[in-house]
Predict the 3D structure of the following.
Amino acid sequence: MLLTTYNVIIVFSHLAWVQTDRKSDGLGYLKYPLISDITKSISKSFGVLIPDQYFSNCRCQRSIFLIADVNNVVTITLLK
């Protein structure tokens, strides 16, 4: 199993997060990759896009997916 995270912001925001330490509300060093889903294709495939007139017509529901392998999603948690 591979731990990763993704969101719909650009990679420059990821870079800023990892270059900022946690005491300053950043992420600091991570042992797993951050993936930018700027095209929202991952979000769409997992069904977590929400229509929203203020966020370029849709935004991503904060979610956690535990994926065991290519065809096996173990759990999905939608966050508020």
